Amino acid sequence: MKIHQIEGYIQTIYLVEYQDKLMLLDGCCRADHDIVLSFITQTLNRAIGDLKVILVTHMHPDHAGGAHKLAKTTGAKIAACNAPGHWYRGLDGVLMHWTDMLLALYVAGRKGKKKQNLFYPRKLRADHFLADGMTIPGFDDWQVMHIPGHTDRDIAAYHIPSERVYVADLMVKVKGELIPPFPLFYPRHYRNSLLAIKLLQPKSVILAHDGELDFADIDFDSLIESAPTTPMTHWRSVKYKFKKALNIH
User: Fold this and answer.
1) Any transmembrane segments, and where (predicted)?
2) What ranges do the domains of the chain cover?
């Protein structure tokens, strides 16, 4: 088993390679579709049909945005958390979906990337819904862990033989320091998710935006202690700024 790191539109793409199959550890951005196919066919010299599973750790544009398009092109199956309902449900969900795509474009701009079409369906059509502790279909050496906090349906993928765990956006690095992600909808669950990874004690932790880190180099106690106790979301930020502008207490 080998994990390839590919530079994506705003995140690192992780493509897992075996002799007879491939798996994406996340659904990428819509803008990453051709990058993934080019890497499979040109760099690895393999057929696009070798991609068997696309894991979607949560529904944000850089994790689910390319899933449907890649699945349609390659025939791969989409696997995701078995959380009830859709993340972007209702009117609030529609507004949040568009806001998240705009935020992704903002991040791309900060990275010097050209604007691209990032639109993707707000409702995921998954083939496999994975409960905590299940293995990924066709990849029995990978076990799923539910790590909610960032959203209600975040999952991690733990490679049992090598003791490496992909945690997507469980933490991000800003100015060299690991901090909680934004948004953070469920702070209590988030602390429990950090604790779960700490207790797992993997050899390394793979992040969606900051590569692979040695477990020993991550201060989980500090992260847990400093984690927010109230949600940090788009809507709370807008509400706070609105009240501040009107001097409302």
Assistant:
1) none
2) 2-226
